[in-house]
Design brief:
Elements lengths: L26 E3 L2 E9 L3 E8 L5 E8 L7 H15 L11 E5 L2 E7 L6 H5 L6 H20 L2 E2 L8 E5 L6 E5 L6 E2 L11 H4 L17 H17 L13 H10 L11 H16 L13 E4 L15 E4 L24 H4 L44 H30 L3 E5 L3 E13 L11 E3 L1 E14 L2 E5 L5 E5 L2 H29 L2 E10 L3 E4 L8 E17 H17 L5 E3 L5 E2 L3 E5 L5 E13 L3 H10 L5 H9 L10 E4 L12 E5 L15
Parallel strand pairs: 13-27, 14-15
Antiparallel strand pairs: 1-2, 2-3, 3-4, 4-6, 5-6, 7-10, 8-9, 11-12, 13-26, 14-25, 16-21, 17-18, 19-21, 20-21, 22-25, 23-25, 24-25
Length: 697
Amino acid sequence: MTFENKAMREPQGFGNERAGLKGQSKLRFGNYDLIRRIDVGGMGEVYLARQRTAFDREVAIKIIRSDLVHDTTARKRFLREAEVNAHLKHEHILPLFEFGEEQGRLFLVTPYIAGGTLSRRLQAGPLSLTEVHQLFTALVKAVAYIHRRGVVHRDLKPNNILLDREGNSGEVYVRLIDFGIASIQGMAASPPLTTAGTEMGTIAYMAPERLSGIAASSNDIFSLGVILYQMLAGQLPSADQRVSLPQPLEYVVDQCIAPDPADRFATAEDVLNAFEYAYQYLNASSTQKAPSSTPPFIPVPGNDVISNHTGNNKQQVKTLHHSDDFPRSSAPSFRPPGLDGFDQNDYGSPTVNLDFANTQEKPYVTASHAPITAAHYAPSKPPRSSGPHRNPILATVTLLVVFLLLVTAVLFFFAEVKPTLDVTGNVNFGPQVQLTKQVFHIKGNISQQNIDVNSATIPVKTFSSSKDGSLSGQTTGQKCILPPLFDCQQVVAQSDVDNLSTQLRQSLDDKISRDLRQQIHSQNGTRVGAIQFVDAPVTANPQVGESGTSVTVSITGQQGQAASIVSQDARQLARSLLQQQVQKMGADYILLNSMIQIGQPVIKGADNNGNVLIDIAAAGDVQYQFPSSQLQDIQNAVKSMKEKDALAFIKRQQGIDPATVTIHLSSGNTMPGDPQKIKIVTINPASYPPVFLPKVS
């Protein structure tokens, strides 16, 4: 059995009572008119419905599956889900409107969220860091709240995270759902209701201790780590193919998905604090980041690093090493006496000649006690030899000095000359990302069959409806026969026919209007202008002037017509026009699909040619893509440049974000002369400009 509109399958076990007129595509379930099925899960079917006693507001109603109606375990679990949800009040948890039983089937009712799930959003690829921060912090706050209430969700996954969009503002609101397998901390997990085939959908988010039947907050913390990685990388974590994340975020993920629960964050608040710190650090400017002498850290409870003078508070310090955290070494102008090793002053000292003949007359003074002046090494007249006999100590000292000089020369060569020859450089920079937004003026035409980007035109569709009906009423006319004077009969008056035909025509017009609105709604359309009615002729039985106490008025073929545009056509055209606008910026600029927002079409009127005038807003982030030829040109241009000149040159190049340019040299402050020793690395933006739609007046 199916609904007339075939939008969804009718649930087994429902009654056949239908609401309204014959042919209306609604299935009545208690106080609700079911519109269409949204999803089928392990325990129930979820429908979009209208609540009749609440002015037909849209709701989502979850009804236990017909094959589980008599399953005791399933009914207890359904009841537990409603009971847990009923006591949770948090801005990021979907509230419970009603719980009950109808036609032997348990059901629960929540608000209807049209924005879809995080899972559907992830199908478009990874999220920007700004999006991740907005969604993940809200999710963690919700998890922290239920943990404080003693509840463990145990089934955190993108399918159970709804995204509620707040109109055209672009704000996305997180709503956590599905407490079907939630439990109280410390309790053994109840037997799984779903089969192994359906369980595979959540096994990727399941903590290892779940397999032992343990319900603890560590279950949800593990799932949070998997979800965070998937939002950042666009895929599930895998040992074979792991996407490299910025180290602060890598740390947060690793601390969440540690195999041993004792190695994970202790609470959801710890997850939130660590993630917030990582986000703030990645968004901080280079001058705001911690200096190299005090590298940034993320506090984690559980280890013995004393953080104050009392020693009562202890925390683990996770050091985040970055290449830009450590300054290049410079030669000190002073070295304390007794310090071993050479510095740049040693390498720059002049070579002197030693007069060993005077070493016995003038004691040697080391540099650690006093500076050696030229007077110590002033040449003197050598003493006259007294004979062939030579001093062996003097020869030994001479050889030792020569050896030391050779060692010094070798060290000087390797310390000064060879590093200069082998110097390498890393150049890092990111692309410019900018917001583009515009209100597009498009047209709708009744003769148009398809979307035309060149003329910015979409089709206008027409809908028609025809209704018949009749209406009876009392007559008010009189016809008297003379003589006698008072012999009168009741007849049909013209006013009787006019009054009844007016009422009947209004009733038919109302039915036609509802029918046309339903047709337009089923096509996801927006009506253009008013509905036009064509009045059909009226017949009366008996006719005007004839005798009778009642009269029946009939109208056959009352007609109405309406015009409509399909909102999706307008949105698709606006997206194409926005893409055209970006193409005018150059071939190296691309529109980021995940950052596009399209508003709702607004009907402005019509022109003299019969075109419907429509305004629609569109916006998105545009990112520059570096062609390989540009990277090669930069590599060749900066060779042998001074570091500061290379920085200034790169910051002026097309499409480069000047704030992201950094250069790291292995030694010195001059770029390598060989371009092959210059490595250029393009980095992804840490955040994207917020996307907002321009206002349509």
